[in-house]
Structure formats: C-alpha cells, structure tokens
Amino acid sequence: MDNGRLMKDKQKLIPTVGHGACLILPGGRNILGGSLFTQFLNADENTANSSSDSEDDQQTSPTFEADCFEVSLDSTQPSPMTCPPTVPCLPEHNEVLTASENESSAAESVVRGALITVSCDIPAARKVSQFLGHKANKGCSRCEFEGERENPRDVTSRMSYFTVVEIVPRLNDTVRSQAVEFLGATNATEVKKIQKKNGVRWSQLLKLTYFDIVTMTMVDPMHTVFLGMIRHETDLIFQDPLFCKESQRVFSSRLKCLRVPYDVGRLPSSLGEKLEFSNLTADQWKNFALIYAKPCLWDLLPPDSYESICMLCDIVQLIVQPSLTDADISRLDYLLKSHHRYFENIYGRFQVSVNYHVALHIPDMIRDFGPPHAFWYFSFERMNGVLSGLPNSNRYVELELFTKFLQDIDIESVLPHDPLVTSWPHLDDILPVAREMSSSVIHPSLLNIRVKSMFATSTQDMYDLQLSIDKGDTNMFGFEWKVEYLPPTRLDLQVTKDFYLKLLCFYEHLYEGNSITVIPRIDKHARCSVNGLSLTSDLHSSDRSSRVKAYFAVVDSEPGYPYFGIVRFFFKSLVIIKGNSFNPTETTKSHDLAYVQWFQFYNGSDDPFFQITDEFYDGDEIISPRRLVSRCVLLKAYSNSPYKFVVEFPA
User: Fold this and answer.
1) Between the CA of residue 92 and those of 352, 404, 605, what are the distances in Å?
2) Are 263 and 534 in contact (CB under 8 A)?
C-alpha cells in the first residue's frame, strides 16, 4: 500500500530507517520528521502513571523548549489565562537547531524538524494532546463518541464504550476552535464547563499550524491490543467458572507441548499451571495470540468464547504484518467491528473498555500512516530497557542517563566534517541511487508475504511456476531470491542407491525431454535461511524449525494446496544437461534442494486447524527450499488423539 493518504495529500513522504521520515515540501526544503514518544511518571514513585483523568482532574502539561527540542513537565495545571510557553522549532517559525564542536566554532549544521505523530499509551497521549481521559464523557481523542457510565452519579464507576452507532470523527479545525474557547475562559467554573462539553483543553501542539492534533495523535496498538484487549479477554476466560481444573490441566499440557523455535518468544513454563498472566510483556501477549491461544484453548471453552478469542487472534495476525493491502485493511476493519459486537454479547456492555473502542480507529490510522510497525510503542519501550540498565545514583536519574546516552553517541559521524559544507545534498540526488541499490533486495518479511501470496493465490500456470522454481530460474520475479546454507555442513558425500533413484526421478521430471546425467555426490547442510525464515533439519541438534509448509499445484489453473512436512536435510546437487538438436551445448547446473517427507492428512480440513497423522505420503520428497513458505509445530489436542494439529508460525 502507499505510505499514507494524509502525508500523500499534504506533502510527499519518503520513509527512512526507524520512526523518522524525510518530508519534501513544495518549496524543495528537506525536513526531518519524527514521532514523539512519551511516558509520564509519578514524581514520587518514579513509576508509570496509568491513571486516567476525568473532567475534574488536574494533570501535568507538556511544554517544549525551542532551543533544544526537549519535553519538560510543568508541576501545575496550565491556566487558560496565562501565556503558553515556547513551541518546537519548526520550518514555518524560521528557527533552526544548531550544533558545533565547541562554543567558539563558527561551523553550524542546520537541522529542520517536523512532528509527524504523537505515539503514546492512552493516558500519556491525553496529557500530551490535552484531550480528556477515558473517564470523561467524551473519552476518545479521534471521535465524538460518549461512553456510558454504569452509575451516572459516580464519576469513578465503570464505563461502557460499546459502539453501536456510526462513529462521528473529530475534526482538527473543530478541536482547535474548542481549545481556543478553553483558553479564553475567565474563571475556573467556565473552564470546567467548557472542557466537560468539548472533552479537550489547550495543548501547545496546537501552535504548530501544520499539526492535525486528531489524526496525528495515535492509538498505540501495543498498549491497546496486546496489553489491553488480549490480556483483558484472557483474564475473563480464566476467571469463568466453566474453565475447570481439568480444562486448566489440558491447557497447561498443550502449552508445554508447543516446542516453538528458539527465535520465537516463548511463554514461561509455569504459566499454564498457575494461570498467572500479570507479568507477561507485550511481546509475549502478541505471541500468545499468534501461536498459543487457538490450539491451547480449542475445545476447552464455550463455542462463543472460543470464536471471540479466535477473532482477536486474527486481528493480531493482521496488525503485525509489515505490509498491508487495501483488502487486508478492510478485513481488519470488519474483524474489529465483529469482535466488538461479539465480545459485548458474551461478557456484557460494561466489560467493553476504552481499548475496544479506540481499536476501531486502527484501520484509519493504517490508511494514514502505514502498517503499525511505523508508529507502535515497541521501539520506545526497548530504548527504555536500554536506558534502565545504565548505572545511576538514583538521585538525578534523567540527567545522568541522558548524559551517558550522549557520551555513547558519535556525534562526529552525523555532522559534516568539512567546515565549508553548509548544506546537505538534496534528497532528489540521493534517492535514485538508493532505489537502484535496493531494487534487487527485498526485506525478509516482505519476501515471505510475497512468496506466500504467489503460491496461495496465483491461478496462472501454477504447475509451470513450481517447475521454474525447482530449476532455480528465479530471475522472473524481479528480486534477489537467495538460499543461504548454514553450518553444520558435510561436503561431497556419496548418496545411497535409493536416494539416487529419487534424485534421478526428480531431474527427469524437471528436465523432461532432455538427456541428463546426475552426479551421485551432494553437499549436505543442516540449516538454511530462505524466504525470511531460518529453517533447520534432522541433521541439526534442534529440530524445532524443521516442520514446514509448502504449496503444491493439483490443477494448473487453481491456487496451490498446502502440505506439511519435516525437513530431513538440505543439499546442493549437480546435474549435467546434455545438448539436443535445438541447443547442442552441454551444461552443468547446480540446484539448491531440500529432502522433505510430507505428512498424510487426517481429514484434509482446516477447521479449526489442519489435522495430520504420523504417516508420510510417497513422492515429491525433493523440492526447492524456496517453496518452503512457513514453519509449523505439531500438537496433539489430547494424549489419545489419532491426529495432530498443525500450528503455523508467522514469519
């Protein structure tokens, strides 16, 4: 999909590494854009303040210092009668950030910055952008929806954000007018009345004339979905009296049997026994939804409850994708709305917290700013973890950590060394070179999506496509399709007679009509990196990544059908293709191949999972590793089950 309709409408957006972006304005000036991540701390306890404000709460106000573009916190509620502090330096204010080696140096570097998004959890986002918290009547920063209080006379009572009416979005111009109205209040009573009516106060970000405070104040999927919806619904499941001790025992057994690859985050081993989920990180909740929830809870819940958690798992599956099409976004929107209604029907309207409402806005944010990877909170929390590990005196923590952080940065590497250099090269001169360098390289996750889509949805010459990939003819796809073998490796091995006959049959089918000679020696490899996946085999000490999925064309004009197997080993093989009357040249060609045995299906249905047996099909054991599109794990639902579930891992 494109990089977002908002930036496409207002200015050209060219994404770069991380959360920054280069904006090319109509005037031709290059501007560094970035996201503002904040975390509000309790001044006494130095812990995250997750409490939410109502109309009467007094909250801290972020202020910005123009000379260093840093965030500081006032200790008092901003008064609408006082002059607001300075604003960030931005192009329209004709201000610049300067940096030099020392005070006497005359060489300065001009850096222009633009704030693209405010990405925080809900309490922090409300404090930065000055929308009222989710206990207020208008608790959403993106629409005019008003929550329903369980007890209208008690402002601390539970609120329902069950959304059945059509969402009316807030408008930037309207919010700005309401903020100016708040700023013009002359007494405390009027202030309280205005903010209760509009659900918004004055924010210093409104002094940035380009800043759309509604659209650019983000809903963070990490807090909203992973730490909010998934955690809440899981707690409700395990608190249900219908989830008895026998169900807990089966759940714990399945959890332990899921031997996931080492590069996939694992859950604590004692999790199933204690059902204690309070200490799970956002990444663990994400993995719980992607991998563990569906197979471990199957047949242990009422059908409605299981259907609800499966919908939520499908939502997470879409949110974590590095690339989303318009069809993906439409499906995400449908799943969010369906789950919203389904969840309320099962657990009641007052279990529908603000997270379930604001999540309905995620599809619109993806249309504006791209996939959630571009704006979610993981990178900020990861940096928090890095900084928290730095030594400090526990007295001036922020100052000491920031000083240490600056000491570790090589500022010389990002500044011009030549004092005569007064400007950076224009992006138009750099981007064509960057595009040319990256045209033949594709990100592993995007490669995996493209390959899966090619095998699963293509309906044209599917059988010929398989043959071309097995031959190694991959230039047709327009990108570099590497197969990288990893140790341990055993070179120049003599093959057995049975394996040689299988290899000969494979090549005769591959080069039908040609006279060939198969070299009876191969190089064996235990591991392989292909399609954005790290795969292992029986030759490796760990077989956790040896169960794989591939598509086979049954009919040439239909998409491929998935099969699941276990990789015995990877190998390179040579074949001599002798000439014919049309091409008399004799060639020796090397092939990247894998020896895979394919499990027989128990019933061939994928509802709720594909079910397989321990028996193998005969034939098609030799295949190009480029056709292996995902890793899987096998799980027995019960100890006496005649079949196993296939649980597929995301890339």
Assistant:
1) 43, 33, 60
2) yes
Q: Exposed (0-12), middle (13-18) or buried (19+): which is 265, by Cβ within 10 Å?
A: middle
**How far apart are the C-alpha atoms of 117 and 20, rounded to whole Å?**
10
Could you tell me the residue ranges of all domains in the chain? 5-218, 221-353, 444-648
Q: Tell me the pLDDT of the chain averaged across its residues.
A: 77
Instruction: Tell me whether residue 133 is exposed, middle or buried, using C-beta atoms within 10 angstroms of its C-beta: 0 to 12, 13 to 18, 19 or more.
Output: buried
Q: Distance between CA 282 and CA 400 in Å, rounded?
A: 28
Mean predicted confidence (pLDDT) in 155-184: 90
d(CA 317, CA 570): 30
DSSP state of 650: P
The whole-number pLDDT of residue 383 equals 77
CB 493 within 8 A of CB 535: no
The predicted model scores a pTM of 0.78
The first and second tokens of residue 354, run together, are 């603000």
- Give, for 358, the enclosing helix (H) or strand (E): helix 354-358
Angle subtended at Cα 453 by Cα 649 and Cα 624, rounded to the nearest 5 degrees = 75
Residue 645 token pair = 């579930």
The DSSP code for 547 is E
9-30 in b/e form (b: 16+ CB < 10 A) is: eeeebbbeeebebbbbbeeeeb
- Residue that the structure tokens 């292992």 belong to: 536
The answer to whether the CB of 592 falls within 8 A of the CB of 550 is no
Cβ atoms 162, 340 nearer than 8 A: yes
pLDDT of 351 = 94
Cα separation values, 365 from 210, 317, 328, 358, 361, Å: 18, 17, 14, 11, 7
Omega within 30 of 0 (cis) for the link into 169: no
Question: 385 exposed, middle or buried (CB, 10 Å; 0-12, 13-18, 19+)?
Answer: exposed
